[in-house]
Amino acid sequence: MLKELGLHKAIHTHYRQEWVKSAIAMIVGRLVYQGSKLSLAHCGGYSSLWNVCGVEGEIDVKANCCDAMDALFARQEAIQAIQATLAKKHLQDGTLILYDITSCCMEGEYADSDLVEFGCNRDKKRGHEQVVISLALQQRRMSGGS
């Protein structure tokens, strides 16, 4: 969806650069996972996020997170200018975007699950494995009738 919207090109026209791939992974990761960049860097054991975004090998927090954030910051003005163009293209009059994230604490034994991970959710319920669930929806008004 990110590529379909053109966000990868908004970050940098040379979107195959390693820092851009890392930035994309952090953006997608923020939508899908709850937690810090450090925890995101260590999600490779249960997620293909970094690989899907084109980042191969061991994830290094400094190179893949901190350096990518520095590069994003340096391009902030250019990205904001392109953001307005993307908004005009994809968010026509009547478009509604809904987004939510939640976590679900799991009771019982989930030792072999790839989806369930030990953590602390926003409700501060500690000591339970959990699944973080996110959803993004786009609704457009239909022209014509009601």
Concise summary:
The protein is α+β, with helices and mostly antiparallel strands and 146 residues long. It has 7 helices and 3 strands, in the order H-H-H-H-H-H-H-E-E-E. It has helices spanning 2-5, 7-11, 18-32, 37-41, 49-52, 61-74, 76-90; strands at 96-106, 117-119, 128-139.
What does this structure look like?
This protein is α+β, with helices and mostly antiparallel strands. The protein has two domains: 2-90, no CATH class; 96-139, no CATH class. Helix content is 42%, strand content 18%. It has seven helices and three strands. The protein has helices spanning 2-5, 7-11, 18-32, 37-41, 49-52, 61-74, 76-90; strands at residues 96-106, 117-119, 128-139. It has a three-stranded antiparallel β-sheet, with no helix packed on it. The longest helix has 15 residues, at 18-32.
**Rg:** 18 Å
Strand order of the largest sheet: 1-3-2
Number of domains: 2
**What's the helix-strand series?**
HHHHHHHEEE
Oligomer kind = single chain
Poorly predicted runs are none
Number of strands: 3
Mean pLDDT: 75
Shape: globular
Which percent band covers the strand fraction? 15-25%
Question: How many H/I helical runs?
Answer: 7
